[in-house]
Write a structure and sequence with these properties.
- The protein has 669 residues and is mainly α.
- It is 64% helix and 5% strand.
- The protein has 33 helices and 7 strands.
Length: 669
């Protein structure tokens, strides 16, 4: 495989190189040699295999960083969690992460994993990427994530040999063996000082032997020594030997070595640091911040920061930077075992973490107009530190950063039979899904919300989650499934006597009919929506129903009633700039159809300005398309083409079906 050194302009997701990366000179040379021989026509695939804790990730990361500048389209990385106690990373989540990193907006991601895979293949076809897939549990985890570009390189690490990856995709295998005594001593020397190791060479060799040559065990012991400059290596070797012999019942020497090294650090932790370590072993997501760590043992954040630093210092926790922390999967298992047999402590720690996520996510709901009256939640363990955000942008950024943890929290609450909490968590993610779509996640969370609400026995909550499931299906073009959810939502809302939630079900049925071109059905549903909204004196819902009625009448070729509905909607929604702008866009189109081009331009200028300020790319595209319609009506096809050319890439990037119609219109021009 011929590579040229270039400056990367794409995503750069590789984790930091390990601080004390040692030896592996022969393996690095072999990897380089194999890479130079690649010429299969597809992406080069290299598999680094070996037992847990042997240093696969360290080698893969060090090599990937060495190669980084040769891949101009950037670097992608994912921990596939193939052997994690939290379970493997799903293909849809991994694909979604990669596509977003490559510039596909969340709104443009399909919900179906096959469609995600196809989009990934298309997106990577012309990009020379470096892809690091760490901790793969199976070939099936890897296959959807292989880019199609022939100049790409994929580095996979796994405890298994993944035979199919070798036979079907010509993966080049490099197997790692434990360190010998010389390289074990070298790692110790880099961490604690060559002079200190040299002064107690015999004890250094004993430590290396007791650690089984496993870098993870050596690193943990080194961290303990580095934090205690006056502690002798003899003392560590003696303590490690006792612990090793105590664990003689474990199945392998490697397991004894890892467990012994972890216990050596854990047993000397202060009680509060030990409690935090054990609690975080139960954390449902892949990484975590200070806030949820503090909540897990009910301490202030400044206390938790100090305890987290202690865990990092002794090698039991990994600091990823930006106040984010994670475990090696062997350390997570070790931490989790510290609460085994104590169901009371486990339940408290888990509930504290789940309730912290709900507490924080609930602070973001002010970003959007609620689609139902809130259902209050009584906290068992209210977090000790308040959560606040300085701006809507900060709230949305927090939701994006914690998205995987929030989804894991919903699923964990359901698994731990906490249905009320699971439903509340699912409901609190609404602002993220409304504004950023994330349709695969939106559907997964909403369907979990349906199950939790049903188990909780709250029909209003169940109706709301059916409606949100319907919205996720509708947004991704799964119209038949959307109808099933909206009808189930309406039935549950009626059972609960909740007309407010029923309004959302009826509106959803109208939106599906409109998307499918069943215009008279859409008018029927939106008229019913308007009636229900007026009967409950729901001003905002009245305005939304009027927008939908106006849009449908316009699509049916009836501009006069459309103008009437949309003008009224603009007045009713005066306190909601975003939806006023939505009404103005369709009003501008209706006025264009009626021949009042000057008035249409006035409405669209105001609409476009609002939508550009709000960052709503889809609504910007709609306004630009409407300007193109004015230009067409004036006979200025050149100007119309310019507006359509600006709108089309936005719609394509969002994966919107409107892109096909606009493309056809451009061809006709």
């Amino acid at each position: 495989m011929k590579l040229t050194r270039q400056v990367s302009s794409g995503p750069r997701e590789l984790p930091p190189a390990p601080a004390h990366f040692t030896n592996r000179t022969a393996e690095l040379a072999l990897l380089e040699k194999l890479l130079s021989q690649d010429g299969t026509g597809g992406p080069a695939v290299h598999l680094i295999s070996g037992q847990g804790g042997i240093g696969k990730t360290a080698l893969a990361t060090a090599w990937a960083r060495h190669l980084g500048d040769r891949f101009p389209a950037g670097h992608l990385w994912a921990d596939l969690g193939g052997f994690s106690t939290n379970g493997p990373l799903s293909a849809s989540e991994a694909l979604g992460r990669f596509l977003r990193a490559l510039g596909v907006p969340p709104e443009g991601l399909p919900a179906d994993v096959e469609e995600l895979t196809a989009l990934y293949r298309t997106t990577t076809a012309e990009r020379p990427l470096l892809v690091l897939l760490d901790n793969a549990g199976s070939t099936e985890q890897v296959l959807p994530l292989l880019p199609t570009g022939g100049e790409s390189l994929v580095i996979v690490t796994s405890r298994r040999r993944l035979g199919r990856l070798q036979t079907e995709h010509r993966a080049r295998l490099v197997e790692l063996a434990p360190f010998g005594s010389t390289h074990s001593a070298e790692l110790l020397g880099r961490a604690v000082g060559e002079e200190r190791v040299g002064a107690e060479a015999a004890h250094a060799r004993a430590i290396a032997e007791l650690c089984g040559g496993l870098p993870i065990a050596l690193t943990t012991v080194s961290a303990k020594l580095a934090g205690r400059p006056k502690m002798s290596l003899e003392k560590i070797a003696t303590e490690l030997g006792k612990e090793y012999r105590r664990l003689a019942t474990l199945s392998t020497k490697e397991a004894q070595s890892v467990e012994a090294s972890f216990n050596l650090s854990y047993d000397e932790l202060p009680s509060d640091a030990a409690a935090l370590y054990a609690a975080l072993g139960l954390h449902p997501g892949p990484d975590f911040g200070v806030g949820v760590a503090a909540a897990s043992i009910a301490v202030r954040e400044e206390v938790a920061e100090d305890l987290l630093d202690q865990l990092v210092d002794v090698g039991l926790l990994i600091d990823r930077g930006d106040d984010r922390y994670t475990f090696h999967d062997l350390a997570r298992l070790h931490a989790k075992e510290k609460t085994a047999g104590n169901e009371y402590d486990r339940d408290i720690a888990m509930r504290r973490m789940l309730e912290w996520y709900l507490f924080a996510a609930s602070k973001t709901t002010v970003m959007t107009v609620p689609d139902q009256d809130p259902i209050p939640y009584r906290y068992e363990y209210r977090p000790p530190t308040p959560v606040s955000f300085e701006s809507p942008e900060e709230e949305l950024a927090w939701l994006e950063r914690e998205r995987e943890n929030l989804i894991a929290a919903v699923e964990t609450a359901e698994t731990w039979q906490l249905p009320e909490l699971g439903w509340q968590l699912a409901a609190a993610m609404w602002p993220l899904f409304l504004l950023r779509k994330h349709y695969p996640d939106f559907l997964k969370v909403s369907q979990a919300g349906v199950r939790c609400a049903r188990a909780w026995g709250n029909a209003s909550a169940e109706a709301l989650m059916h409606n949100r499931s319907g919205a996720a299906c509708r947004g991704s073009g799964r119209y038949d499934e959307a109808v099933v959810h909206y009808e189930a939502g309406r039935e549950a809302a009626r059972k609960a006597g909740d007309e407010v939630v029923e309004i959302r079900s009826v509106e959803g049925l109208g939106l599906v009919a409109l998307a499918q071109g069943r215009l008279e059905d859409a008018v029927k549903w939106f008229t019913e929506d308007h009636r229900l909204s007026e009967s409950r004196n729901r001003t905002h819902d009245i305005g939304l129903a009027l927008i939908n009625l106006g849009s449908t009448q316009l699509k049916a070729g009836r501009p006069d009633p459309a103008i009437e509905h949309l003008t009224r909607a603009r007045e009713v929604l005066a306190a909601d700039p975003y939806n006023v702008a939505r009404a103005r866009t369709d009003l501008g189109r209706a006025l264009t159809a009626a021949g009042d081009l000057a008035a249409a331009r006035t409405e669209l200028e105001a609409s476009l300005a609002t939508m550009e300020a709000s960052g709503s790319r889809f609504e910007v595209a709609r306004a630009l398309s409407a300007f193109g319609e004015i230009a067409e009506a004036e006979g200025n096809t050149g100007e119309a083409r310019r507006f359509y050319d600006r709108a089309l890439p936005i719609l394509v990037g969002l994966g919107r079906p409107e892109a096909d119609a606009l493309r056809t219109r451009l061809e006709q021009l």
